[in-house]
Design brief:
The complex is a heterodimer.
Chain A: H1 2-10, H2 21-25, H3 27-31, H4 37-46, H5 49-54, H6 66-70, H7 77-90, H8 102-109, E1 135-138, H9 142-149, H10 158-170, H11 186-190, H12 194-211, E2 215-218, H13 221-235, E3 241-244, H14 245-251, E4 263-268, H15 272-276, H16 281-288, E5 293-296, H17 318-333, E6 338-341, H18 344-354, E7 365-368, H19 369-375
Parallel strand pairs in A: 1-2, 2-3, 4-5, 4-6, 6-7
Helix pairs in contact in A: 10-19, 14-16, 17-18
Chain B: E1 2-6, E2 11-15, E3 21-26, H1 30-39, E4 48-53, H2 61-69, E5 74-79, H3 90-107, E6 115-119, H4 125-142
Parallel strand pairs in B: 3-4, 3-5, 5-6
Antiparallel strand pairs in B: 1-2
Helix pairs in contact in B: 1-4, 2-3
The chains are: A alpha/beta, B alpha/beta.
Amino acid sequence: MELIIEKLKKNRAFLCLECGKCTATCPISTYNRGYSPRRMLAEGLFYDAGDLMSDRLLWSCLTCRLCSQRCPVDVKYSDYMRDIRAEACRHGQWGNPSHGGTLLHIMEMTASPKLRQNRTGWITEDLRIGTKGEVLYFVGCLPYFQDFFSKDFDFDPVSIAQDTVRILNRLGIEPVVLENERCCGHDLYWLGRLEKLDDLGRLNIKQIEESGAKMVVTACPECALVLKNIYPERLGNIGFEVAHISEIIARNVDRLKFKNLDMEITFQDPCRLGRYLGVYRQPREALSSIPGLRMYEMRHSGRGAICCGTTNWMNCDATSHQIQRNRLNEARATGAKTLVTACPKCQIHLRCTTCSKEPEKVDIALSDLVNIVASALAD
Amino acid sequence: MAIKTSKREKKVTWEEFVPDIVAFACNWCSYAGADTAGVNRIQHSPNFRIIRTMCSGRVTPAYVLKALKLGADGVLVSGCHFGDCHYIFGNYEAVKQFEKTKALVKTLGLDEKRVRLEWVSAAEGGRWADVINEFVGQITALGPSPLNHKPKSGK
């Protein structure tokens, strides 16, 4: 009990005005009336902490920070969830991981120092990769997504990695790619497995520092968030800069030559890129610099963007499905034919709904920002 | 096999690698096949733990990867022959799932030979023994898995 109160204090929960804005905006509460961020705080305060920790809904929070965005006193709800989950993990509680926990097992497996992965199979001959250099490309889980998802959906996750290298090559950068890169540990961090994140972080930081890179580029907002904010917070200062690929494109937009691309698109702000890292402008700048591309904004975009429905491969259920369906319909209502995201996971989750065998299908194509930019590069 | 010299006794002792293998066997064919092997008193390697599943199609990559994560040196998935499946198409699903598993294991940098898919019917006790002996031999040749953190016993 004391412990929960300490966590409530740490995350500013005692400032709560009981206005209920968090519950009103929470994407989960919209479709699942049993879940409420406000109730989760109240439970920690008034009831037995054991009940809160054994509650299955504890693992449903998307940690999308939409509630903190709306909160007038900035209660750090996502951080509170992470702290309670860490405590629940210590007591042997766990949620319902989607895909049987396959991807979470892989993340934990990569924390083993003896493991030598075989993950650079996506590098084709036309891509120029350096062995030493200033810039390092942090690939993330894409090779595993290729193995796991490419057969179920019409989706090619490694094309995101290939196109990222293609864009960097066009800018005259030959990025270093780590042969034995570990998982960044993002999901394990938000699920409360903080020790595992530390293990992964130490292995990754050591490798990046050995490569001599001054800047790390990623095409995944989650990797960017972990490398930029969470590693320094947990493991002390790091000796390199971190940037998402959309920032690199926006910075060097004059140096890239684009051909005409006749497309109607809308952009889904990933929560880690937007609300966590504050990158709203750069992806839009990158996309709007392509001639012929018409961009429409969804009703909920930018700071108020709604999450793709699942995070951390945990508790994917009918609620997640409804959030995704609603989001896709919102994208379709703008008149766009393609929904562009900057996060491979957003794409996987939304694609899952478009590929479902239900009668009311949402007819919209999905693509990654990097794929769109690379396809618009002039020869 | 590695030679280990004990400092105190100055004797050379042989430390043998004993693989830990997890076998997922389907309830209707392979588990009964293993039972047949037992009833017929067919001798085979004892280095595996059998886990009964209702169907081999139920064994998703998650099960195999969790076994490997917890330190198994090899994982065997076994089901009914094609056309014999109790659930008619379960083993076709098993093939699909196993392809994914194999791809993931390869990307993780583990040897592909550490995972295996086999078909054993309820009558094939002898075949079950052969499959197990062959697989144990294969894993022993490969050596311990890089994820096997268990301290080695010097039996």
